[in-house]
Structures are given as structure tokens and as C-alpha cells.
Design goal:
Elements: H1 8-36, E1 71-76, E2 81-88, E3 107-110, E4 120-125, E5 148-153, E6 158-170, H2 176-180, E7 188-200, E8 205-220
Parallel strand pairs: 2-3, 4-7
Antiparallel strand pairs: 1-2, 1-5, 3-4, 5-6, 6-8, 7-8
Amino acid sequence: MSDRERSIGTGRLVTGVVWAVLLLGLWLWGREVTDVRHGISAPTTGDMAAAGRPPVADLPPPAEPLTGALPQRLDIPGLGVQAPVVARGLDSQGAVDPPPYDQPAVVGWYAAGTKPGEVGTALMVGHVDTETRPAVFYRLSALQPGAVVRVVRVDGKVAEFTVDDVKVLSRDHFDAQQAYGVRKSGRAELRLITCGGTFDRTTRSYTANVVVSAYLTGTGL
């Protein structure tokens, strides 16, 4: 059965499972910090062979972090993505609340966390597909180290990030530190997350998450 054939209710069930997993990761990540400090014709997401490739050797140096400002838009030139960003929190069941299911072109920013451009890891999430078509992060796994991601902020500045890592993390062995933890202290980092792997018809969920890591390398107006 293709994604096109799934019902809206099933799609929402899958989405709920996905973001419940993300919440678990956030809880574990927050605990560690405290203690020490959907595809329409196929169940894969984008170019799965691209995920996990070794980083290129000549990535640019990190830029000085910015002061906090709310994000307005996410641009990924290599994927043709220009998406509005909305602040999201937790839903009534305690899971990370993604953008509304009927707004597949919108990216959600975890507003209880870091603002894009600040020191730390800013988290953005998006749907991979709907029951009828690809969504904003459908080709996220096709990104490679060196790709540019831009966040337009309400202060008029554009925080420009460079991708340094793309991973597909299995749900069975989900590593919260890899997904949410700071890669290098002192940097402003950005994490983009969506569904990945294959669609498991038994559990009615995807088998993995695609996690793109990027760090601030420039700013503009």
C-alpha cells in the first residue's frame, strides 16, 4: 500500500508516533544537560544513500553566535525550500507539536529551546509527506555536508548555517545526544529533523529519523 492510499487518520497516527519519539529524545537530552550541565509513492525519504556520508574536509569556520531573535523563514537553496517557520511547543499528550497536518509546507521551531543563531542547538522539525503529496522535508536526507541553510529572523538578520552532518537514526537505537546534543561547544548550531527509513506497516510508523546538523558560518541582512 502506498502513502497515497493511506487515510488521513492513519497519517495523523504516524505523525503522533514520530513526535512522541522526538519528545523522548528531548527529555533524555534535557536530563543529560541537567545532570552534567510522510513519501507519497515510496516509504523512503529523499536520497537515503546521501545520509551518513563523511563530512567534506573544507567546511568553513564557525561564525560568532548572534543574540536571540525569533525565526521567520527557513531557506534551503539546494532543495528549493522556502518555508515559513512557526513556534511550536508540546501537545496535550506531551509530545512535540509539529506544524498542523494540513500545512505540510510549514516548518516548526521548538520554541522552548535555542533561537537560531544563538549559542546552542536550535531545533526545527517538519513533515516528510502527507497522505497525498511530499511535504517540506521530503528531500531532507539528500543534503550533504557543505550545503547552505538560511534562517531569516525577525531582527532582519539572516543566520546562514553550513551542514556538517546528515544521519539516519534508527528508532530502535535512537541516540538523543546525536539528535539534539551540541556537537561543538560555543557554536550556534541548527538541527533539522523529519521521518526517515522505511514505513513499517506493523507499527504504522517510519523506522528512523533523518537528522541534519548544521552550524552558523555567516550572517546577512
